[in-house]
Amino acid sequence: MCSSDLFYHLSAPLLLILPVCTQAADAYVPADAEPAAVTLSTVTVRGKRQKSLNKGYTASGTYAATGMPLTLREVPQSVSVVTDKQMKDQGKRSVYDALSWVNGISGNPASSRYAVTNMYARGETVNDYQIDGMTTEIDGNQLLNSGAYERVEVVRGTSALQGGVGDPSATVNLVRKRPTKERQAEISVGIGRWRRWNAEADVSGPLNSSGSLRGRAVINAEGGRHWTEGSRDRSDMVYGIAEYDFSPQTTAYAGINHQRAREKEFYGGDLPVYDSAGYPTRLGIRDNNKIKGSRYRERATELFTGLEHRFENNWKAKLEYRYNREKTLNPGMGDAPYNYLRHDDSSAGAKFYKMGDNIVSHAFSFKLNGQYDLWGRKHEAVFGIGGYRTRDKRAWANSEGNYSIDDIYDFIRRRDYPSIASVNDWKWDGDTIATRQISGYAATRLHATDKLSLLLGANYARYHYQAIPVGGSPNTEAKEGRFAPYAGITYDLTGNLSAYASYSRLFMPHENGETDINRRPIDPITGRTVEAGLKGEWLEGRLNASLSVFQSKRRNVAVEAGKFDNDDTYYRAANTKAHGWEAEISGSPAEGWDISAGVQSHLTREENGNRPNSQYDPRHSFKLFTTYRLPKTRWTLGGGVRWQSKTFVDKYGDLSNIEFDDDEAKERARVLSRQKSFAVVDLTAQYDISKNANLTLNFDNVFDKRYRMDTMYHDYGQPRSLSGTLRYKF
Length: 730
Fold this sequence. Notes:
By secondary structure, the chain is mostly beta strands. It has a single domain (3-729), classed as Maltoporin, Chain A (Beta Barrel), CATH 2.40.170. It is 6% helix and 52% strand. It has five helices and 33 strands. It has helices at 3-20, 84-90, 95-99, 408-414, 663-672, and strands spanning 79-83, 105-107, 119-121, 124-125, 128-131, 134-135, 149-156, 170-176, 184-192, 196-206, 213-225, 232-247, 250-264, 295-310, 315-335, 348-374, 377-399, 403-405, 426-447, 452-469, 476-492, 497-508, 525-538, 543-563, 569-590, 593-606, 620-629, 635-644, 678-688, 693-700, 708-710, 715-716, 721-729. A hairpin with a 4-residue loop joins strand 29 (678-688) and strand 30 (693-700). The longest helix is centred in the first third of the chain and has 18 residues, at 3-20. The chain is globular. The two termini are 50 Å apart. Residues 1-53 have low confidence and may be disordered.
């Protein structure tokens, strides 16, 4: 069966679910949205408000899209949620791993296995990240261990209301774990292939007799080898948070999240799949380009605090602050080859370098939201202001000597010539990247009728970027302010099914200071996104489904256009258009049955026909993961499949990593760099040893499918692996 046929065969059952699910249910909203006061003059019934349902594969609602407590059905955009239960069932321990199972999200791992970067949605890079609904700048290599988070929310499309600048791909919101009113504790230990291990403890509950003071602590560690030769890694995390109720209306909290990662000879992904003549190289999945002794270390400390006050008139004010300091150090790294391989010549060059980053960021947010009466109906509104400031002091050094390797294939097997210790002459350089943003926003949700609601809002953001060389003045500077409106409409077709549409404009500065051939900064990205669809909610919020179509336009997208004499890249401004559709279902359709499934199709093109990010972001994809507890047994069985269409280097794209012998060689390399459509199958089995003890087995990539994450390099996804985790709840 061809890939297109498989795509439609997989998507058809999911699309049929929307009209089939017709069971009535009460409207579902987040727990902290208190019920409105009942007045005799009002006949509108908004539904019963219940506790949050985050124990399965869906959530009761989200603040991420609008800053208001809305159910997934009430948000006029596509929303996906990866809960803590789903991450545990799948054996995922990083935010990157969790996002890889979200409908419409694809990615290529960062240089660190514990970081999140290079994520794509709707043909564009994901740049907008939030923590507990607060926009903050997250560096591409920032450590993001999933142990600190209750769930990961993804709002696809432009969402700039809460202080962000807007991104047509998606907004990722990380929801922290909070203290519980009841005492609970869980410990887990696990082992897996390549001598991998992990351990975690999660303890929560009241800290005084009245329960006004509560705390939670999560400690975990993991490490082991990698499937590439010689690679090892280790990660540790300590997360703690405390809450205190000054009164029934006022709560304060403060916490810390400290993470550390150490890696040795971790694969850098620079081994090309083709040579200068466009023919395949003799390299494979286990080959490692890192020279023996190469090391990488990273440490990040996050401090956060907040104060929340709930007024008697159903209004709530929340003030938050976040401080993050991150240090990255490459005390000695060596890569080979650092550029390309010649055809009929096995010699290559080696690159030696040292790098260090010291990133300090501050972020704050103030938000006021609640209900008000107008025209005999109750409506919701939110007002907020937020911003961040980041300084990244970077230093790097390259070896001044020229190092060559006689036989790259022999070197790859040994990785010990030349050695890091032999490098004595280093040329140091550095700069400071300073960014700051401040924005204000306001939005209201008007209930025009019992079935019709309008969401209107706007955001104004100012952004400032500077690149300051050591001992010099800024050589690159960009600052801009822009107004971005937002509008959405939702209409209840039935008690369980709604139709929606939304319109938003976007403003997004280039965060890496991209300049054109005249060294002038590329103008900020502007554009708009429109989306429409259907959303359903059944079984008292335990099951959610959606179907959406979208279209977006972007102007001033920075595209690589050439090199300066000093080998820096210069860019051109391009305009892109994207359109597509998505369908998704998540939740618990029956007792003991959890499911998360989604399918999407999109196409993004520039004016010249180029497809941006075509080597990472597939046009079509399908994802399904489900578990079912066997009745009257202690077993829960499940599994999942991730399928995607081909990825490739677009014919308009530039294969700049190799100096090809001729145009025919370049075209051969382009064909060779294609990754055909593929599917990866995972299985899981859980056995309840006792009421408190549970054993989970995860069998990933059951059929050992070999596929490249980056089409131009020997950068592969995880091979077949088996892991087991033992959990005990107190």
